[in-house]
Amino acid sequence: MTATTAPTSPIASRPDFAAIAAWVQSGSKVLDLGCGDGSLLCYLRDTRNVRGYGVEIDDANVLACLNNGVNVIQGDLESGLSSFESGSFDYVILSQTLQAMKHTEGIVREMLRVSREGIVSFPNFGYWKNRLQVVSGHMPVSETLPYQWFDTPNIHLCTLGDFEAFCHQHGVHILERRVMNGDHQITLAPNLLGMLAFYRFERQK
User: Fold this and answer.
1) Is pLDDT above 90 for 33?
2) Residue 173: its pLDDT value, please?
3) Domain 10-203 coded CATH 1.10.230.10
4) How far, in Å, are 12, 20, 89 from residue 185 at the CA level?
C-alpha cells in the first residue's frame, strides 16, 4: 500500500496571503492590483468571503484569473485607476508589486481614492542578507528578490524606514505594520531581520 502525502494548506504554503487576509473584514469588496493569476483573490474569497476584482496586464495571467473564476480587468497600473469610481472598494491591495512601479506616489494616491484602506507588501531591502550582498559588491538575490540585476522588474526597492518616511511625506496614515521572515512574524529589529513588509494604511485625516 502506497503512502500518500497530505496536501499543504494554503496558509502553510503562502503565509503572506494569511497576513493580508488577517486585515480584511469578511464580506468586503477588494481590488487586487497586479493580481497575477488571481491566487490571492481566490484565497480571500475562500477565507473572507470577499467580492474581489483584479487588475493585471499579462495575457497569460489574465487567462489564469478567468480560469480561476476571478473577475479581472486587463490594464496597466501605471495609467492609474480611472476605470474605478472613488470609494468603490473597502480595500485595495498591492502585493509585492510596489517596488516594480515607476510612479509610487501616483499609485498610492489612486489606491486611497478608490478605497478606504490600502494594503501593500514588498521585499525589505534592509534585510541583513541583502545588506551583506551589497557590502560584498553585488546586488541582492534572494527568495523575495529572485532576479539578477539585469533582468529584474524591480526599480524602486526600499526599506521599512524608506516606506514610512514616504507615507509621512505624502499624507498617508499607517494603521498597522507586520514584518515577516517566511511564516515567522518579526518584532525585534524588523528592518534588519525581516524579509517581507506589510502595511495597512489610510488617508491622513
Assistant:
1) yes
2) 97
3) no
4) 14, 13, 28
Q: How confident is the model at residue 116 (pLDDT cuts 50, 70, 90)?
A: very high
Residues 6+ apart with CB under 8 A from 146: none
Residue 13 pLDDT? 64
Q: Give me the DSSP letters along the chain.
A: ----PPPPPHHHH-HHHHHHHTTSPTT-EEEEET-TTSHHHHHHHHHH--EEEEEE--HHHHHHHHHTT-EEEE--GGG--TTS-TT-EEEEEEES-GGG-S-HHHHHHHHHHHEEEEEEEEEBTTSHHHHHHHHTTS----SSS-S-TTT------B-HHHHHHHHHHTTEEEEEEEEEETTEE--SSHHHH-SEEEEEEEE--
Task: Write the CB contacts of 102 (distance below 8 Å, at least 6 apart in sequence).
Answer: 78, 155, 156
Distance of alpha carbon 44 from alpha carbon 52, whole angstroms: 8
Separation of alpha carbons 49 and 154, rounded Å: 32
Span 143-166, pLDDT tens digits: 887 778 787 877 888 999 999 999
pLDDT(92) > 80? yes
Roughly how many angstroms between the first and final C-alpha of the chain, as a whole number? Answer: 64
Q: Where are the domains of the chain?
A: 10-203
Of the pLDDT bands very low, low, confident and very high (cuts 50, 70, 90), residue 192 is: very high
